[in-house]
Write a structure and sequence with these properties.
There is one protein chain. The chain is an alpha+beta fold and 453 residues long. Among the domains are: 5-33 and 70-145; 299-452, no CATH class. Helices cover 50% and strands 15% of the residues. It has helices at 5-25, 71-81, 85-95, 107-122, 128-142, 191-195, 218-235, 278-297, 304-317, 322-337, 346-359, 365-383, 395-414, 420-430, 434-447; strands spanning 34-46, 56-69, 147-149, 152-156, 158-160, 164-168, 171-174, 182-186, 207-211, 213-215, 241-246, 271-273. The strands form 4 sheets. Strands 6-7-9-4-11 form a 5-stranded antiparallel beta sheet. A 3-stranded antiparallel beta sheet has the order 2-1-8, covered by helices on one side. Strand 6 (164-168) and strand 7 (171-174) form a beta hairpin. Helix 1 (5-25) runs antiparallel to helix 3 (85-95) and helix 12 crosses helix 13. The longest helix has 21 residues, at 5-25. The relative contact order is 0.09.
Length: 453
């Protein structure tokens, strides 16, 4: 008869006590033997006193030692434990669990990781409560149950006026500080390689996002971060992007990732959250997260909305030329506002439908129509390799990208009630019939709240 779940907890507790006893016997006295392990503290410095987004020009490095359990003690203790009855009983119980092989490599390696975590915690003394916490984490992991993750994300393209913003109860956006620009790297045999292990940032982040979430695997956390950034990209026109992700978790057996490598994406657009906007941002994020996750990331199939959002991301990330940004933004609008079979007068159709839709939310229709026609003309000349008129006003790009962002938000919220073809037909009717326009406005206002646009 297999052991019950309660029996596994008892077995793991007995195994922990046995491991500590063997480790102590392999050391000199009751204290488990430790060894000094060299670490490198690297501190990045910015070009001026400001940290937010400043270029990093210099670093200081300082070596130090930390006392850690000797690798010889860890190895000898594991080998001696493998000859005990309690070890065999734990392995038998773990083998009976149904776990994902990609997450938990093998029962033996899992139990070895558990033993090491107990011994690492025991170098400064371990209590019954400490052992119980290790057991809880370990059993959760072999059962693929959610564990706690606490990522720290370096963000570009988003600034905040206050020191910190509470986006939700467990999500904080804050200004970066000097401690964020410090890395601690374990120096192994190839010190030169490890000194370069995490790369070198070109600039400091403009903001830091920290949150906590229970999830069975780090892939779920990366998915959450992807949706989070997309929502922030849609709140305002900003090239919000992740510069680095550091994952922190109490995981015992799952692969623990190294600190994220730095990248410095182009951020041609950015926005700042003022104190008065905090409640609006929080409301937008809370309501739009599930919409964005379900509509843009819960399917592998492309449709007009996923294509439109991809083009919008291109527009806010490209830094080659204004023409390239306009082209991506217009392509995004085309995916939403033109029917697949439509030919001819595309500029007129696109601008008319955009000015009707955005006009329902307080935008000036005549201005929208004029700017979209101008942008469409630039886009057409650009994609056909012709020279473009450079005298079109520096605000045109940001306005067109903002129109695109607004349309995506509206479509995301309307997609269940108004399929694309249905909405386009109603927009066409609204352009020629005042009654149709009023009816459409009333219906849309019921679905799209004021905070969305």
């Amino acid at each position: 008869m297999s052991q019950t779940r309660e029996d596994l907890h008892s077995l793991l507790y007995d195994l922990a006590e046995e491991a500590i006893e063997i480790a102590q016997s392999n050391s000199d006295g009751d204290i488990i033997e430790t060894t000094e392990v060299p670490y490198l503290e690297r501190r990045y410095q910015t070009i001026d006193d400001s940290i937010d987004g400043s270029r990093i020009i210099r670093t200081t490095e300082e070596e130090s030692n930390k006392n850690e359990i000797s690798t010889d003690v860890l190895r000898d203790t594991s080998q001696q434990l493998q000859e005990t009855e309690i070890y065999d009983r734990v392995i038998s119980e773990v083998e009976s669990r149904e776990f994902e092989s990609l997450i938990v490599p093998s029962p033996e390696s899992s139990v070895t990781a558990y033993i090491q975590s107990i011994l690492n915690g025991a170098k400064n003394g371990v209590s019954d409560r400490d052992i119980a916490r290790h057991i809880s984490i370990f059993t959760s992991e072999i059962d693929s149950a959610p564990i706690s993750w606490n990522p720290k994300i370096w963000i570009l393209g988003l600034d905040i006026e206050d020191d910190s913003v509470q986006l939700e109860e467990n999500i904080t956006i804050r200004k970066p500080d000097e401690d964020d620009l410090v890395e601690e790297i374990r120096i192994e045999d190839d010190a030169g390689f490890n000194r370069r292990a995490t790369g070198m940032p070109e600039r400091a982040p403009t903001a830091i996002i920290e949150f906590s979430k229970r999830a069975p695997d780090r892939r779920d956390i990366y998915d959450t971060i992807q949706v989070m950034i997309s929502v922030l990209q849609l709140y305002d026109v900003g090239s919000v992007s992740s510069m680095k992700v550091d994952l922190h978790t109490e995981s015992i057996i799952k692969p623990f990732p190294l600190p994220g490598r730095y990248n410095s994406p182009d951020t041609p657009f950015s926005y700042t959250i003022s104190e008065s906007e905090i409640s609006d941002l929080s409301l937008f994020y809370t309501h739009m997260y599930e919409v964005v996750e379900e509509r843009l990331y819960s399917t592998d199939e492309q449709d007009y909305l996923t294509i439109s959002f991809d083009r919008y991301e291109n527009a806010i990330e490209e830094n080659d030329s204004p023409e390239s940004q306009l082209t991506s933004a217009i392509m995004s609008l085309e995916a939403m506002l033109l029917k697949d079979e439509e030919k001819g007068e595309l500029s007129e159709r696109l601008s008319r439908r955009a000015d009707i839709l955005l006009g329902l939310f307080g935008h000036q229709p005549i201005e929208i129509s004029r700017k979209i026609k101008t942008a469409y003309s630039i886009r057409s000349r650009y994609v056909h390799g012709s020279e473009t008129d450079q005298d079109y006003g520096e605000d045109l790009v940001s306005d067109i990208v903002d129109y695109t962002r607004n349309c995506i938000v509206i479509y995301l919220l309307l997609s269940e009630d108004f399929p694309k073809e249905k909405l386009l037909s109603k927009l066409d009717n609204a352009s020629v019939q005042a009654e149709s326009r009023e009816a459409l406005s009333e219906k849309i206002q019921e679905v799209v709240p004021e905070w969305a646009i």
